[in-house]
Specification:
The structure holds two protein chains of two kinds. By secondary structure, chain A is of the alpha/beta class. Chain A is built from ten helices and twelve strands. In chain A, the strands form three sheets. Chain A has a six-stranded mixed β-sheet, with helices on both faces. In chain A, α5 runs parallel beside α6. By secondary structure, chain B is an all-alpha fold. The two termini of chain B are about 20 Å apart. The chains are: A alpha/beta, B mainly alpha.
């Protein structure tokens, strides 16, 4: 649809979104958008309002104020189901998989393919297995046996499978909540690769993270959140990684603190990445 | 091989073989293999029906401690409706089943709404149900036992369905096998079964994926209560009477059978077939000890020790499963 229109419509756009819980205002004024085949990174420190933003985008919370549109059409996402029906899929950091359940069963949890009629309707495991193999193949993920419990996979593989699952179920907008934060450098690399694959398949990816290094590696545009407000959106050409980090920290004071702590924890994994 | 070892019921299957061989050697001569089989199978069948439902609930991450007192309450409902109001046996059974579904629904609703541990909520309903059963029975009849069910209308048809013998074996054994197979099919081959695993293994993940976790749990609480009612029906029809204390402790025996069968206390993993093996072990130990000439008081020591070994094995298996290969 959006291709025929003169102005390229964003897949998902929000404007002046606000949400408070009681007297605590979690998100005050956030404006951002994501287009087809683009990775939009939403960067912010703890408490910047990232989780609340995700919950509004994925239909868990309704915003108090502001507008939200999907492919140009203004929407009100009343539930996660509602969001999914509009092609918005969210992959949560630790909540993506059931560890003791097999890969196939996880992949189709909540959307099991069925066969048979009436009381004999049953979960079509064979068809599910074939789909999982094909989909993981397409994403370049190799598992030995899709009936193995997910718990035997590494964190990066789990996130990757969760991404593959979202793409398979027709996600046009993929919201990823800190997909790399609990992972080592190598595992994070695996996940970033699948994010790139999802982008190549035309998904609009919203990558929410507090890690500017990972964001810089994969992002096309960057929106910085601070204390519940978006501090502007920059394309990769408009901003350097250093500026990104600085803006994210939100001012000189925090910058100094970051520097100080950086000195203290030199040699830790995250600093190694900044050198690569 | 690894796949077989990872199956939750693997340990219990080994346990069944080990226990059977043990008693075949030590009590085979005194009748464990001949007269013993129908007896231990009957014991196993009633416990196994409870354990099938309890294991499903435990896989979904919840406990039901009220099944024991549900047995007493259901049995007493059948007996009192007959004795006091002259209801037919089928009317009484239908009323008891309706009651059990209501109690199960209430248990489930309170658990999912308050988010209190089901252990506590159903401990509460254990006492409430037990107290109500004793209180009402004594208030109405002045006794704690109500008999004479045989005179109820249509008793014979209920007897043939719930308390007859088929080929020398109690009919409850066939019920047990059928229920275990059905529950296994539901768990492993239906959408609802996949949701049970999801609800227990990672409720938040399951909810995010659109699994109605609360409904799944409520349905399973209703199932455990219903199965308790079914067991109460077997016993009421078989013994022709009910006692306010019948079923006491069954909730723990059912949990024991489920855990012996490889179901994790924390949910997300387990098997109905395993629970059936667990119940079978229970029955064989309880009867085998008698046939071995040991005082039957000792069977609990044996079972308790087996439980601890089973949990150790389960913990080891789960540790291996969720351990990422990094």
């Amino acid at each position: 649809m959006s291709i025929q229109e003169p102005v390229r419509q964003p897949l998902l756009a929000v404007e002046s979104l606000a949400k408070s819980f009681g007297k605590v205002s979690a998100v005050e004024d956030v404006t951002m958008s994501v287009h087809e085949g683009e990775v939009m990174c939403v960067l912010g420190d703890n408490g910047a309002g990232k989780s609340t933003l995700i919950k509004m985008l994925s239909g868990v919370h309704l915003p108090d104020r502001g507008r939200m549109s999907v492919s140009g059409e203004e929407v009100r996402l009343a539930s996660p189901r509602d969001a999914r029906a509009r092609g918005i899929a969210t992959v949560y950091q630790d909540l993506a998989m059931v560890p003791m359940l097999s890969i196939v069963r996880n992949f189709f949890l909540g959307a099991e393919p069925m066969k048979g009629f009436g009381p004999f309707r049953r979960f079509d495991l064979k068809a599910a297995d074939a789909v999982v193999r094909a989909e993981l193949d397409k994403m370049g993920i190799h598992v030995r046996d899709s009936s193995e419990p997910v718990g035997t996979l590494s964190g990066g593989e789990r996130q990757s499978i969760a991404i593959a699952r979202a793409v398979y179920f027709g996600a046009r907008v993929l919201i990823l909540d800190e997909p790399t934060s609990a992972l080592g450098v190598k595992q994070a690399g695996i996940v970033l690769r699948y994010i790139a694959q999802a982008r190549a398949r035309g998904c609009g990816v919203i990558l929410v993270t507090h890690n500017p290094h990972h964001a810089w590696l994969i992002g096309d545009r960057f929106t910085i959140l601070n204390r519940g407000r978006s501090q502007g959106t920059f394309s990769k050409a408009q901003i350097t990684r250093e500026e990104l980090i600085q803006r994210m920290a939100g001012g000189r004071e925090l910058e100094e603190l970051t520097h100080e702590l950086g000195e203290l924890s030199r040699g830790d994994g995250r600093l190694e990445i900044s050198g690569t | 091989m690894r796949r077989i070892l990872n199956r939750p019921e693997f340990g219990a299957a080994c346990g069944v073989v080990a226990v059977w061989v043990f008693f075949a050697l030590y009590a085979g001569g005194s009748g464990f293999l001949t007269a013993g089989a129908p007896t231990y199978l009957e014991i196993a069948s009633e416990l196994g029906i409870l354990a099938a439902a309890v294991s499903l609930l435990m896989i979904a991450g919840e406990f039901d401690l009220s099944v024991g007192s549900m047995i007493a309450a259901s049995g007493m409902t059948i007996s009192l409706l007959h004795e006091q109001l002259g209801w037919s046996i089928w009317g009484g059974i239908a009323a008891a089943m309706a009651l059990s579904l209501v109690v199960g629904f209430a248990n489930g609703l309170v658990v999912v709404r308050t988010r209190l541990p089901s252990f506590i909520v159903t401990l509460g309903s254990l006492f409430i149900l037990s107290g109500l059963t004793i209180g009402i029975t004594r208030l109405v009849t002045g006794r704690t036992q109500v008999g004479g069910l045989r005179k109820a209308l249509h008793y014979e048809s209920a007897q043939s369905l719930f308390a007859s013998q088929v080929g020398g074996f109690s009919v409850s054994i066939f019920w047990w096998v059928a229920i275990s197979l059905l529950a296994t099919w539901v768990l492993l081959r239906t959408r609802f079964g996949n949701w049970i695993f999801g609800a227990g293994g990672a409720p938040d993940a399951a909810r995010n994926l659109g699994v109605p976790v609360q409904k799944v749990k409520i349905a399973l609480f209703m199932t455990t209560a219903f199965c308790a009612c079914l067991v109460a029906t077997f016993q009421a029809v078989k013994f022709n009477s009910t006692d306010v204390l019948r079923g006491t402790g069954k909730e723990l025996e059912a949990i024991l059978a489920a855990v012996l069968g490889g179901t994790l206390l924390t949910g997300g993993h387990g098997s109905v077939i395993g629970a059936a093996f667990g119940a079978l072990i229970f029955g064989m130990v309880q009867q085998g000890i008698v046939f071995a000439g040991v005082d039957s008081d000792w069977y609990k020591v044996f079972l308790g020790a087996m439980l601890i070994v089973a949990v150790l094995v389960n913990t080891y298996v789960r540790g291996r499963m969720v351990e990422a290969r990094r």
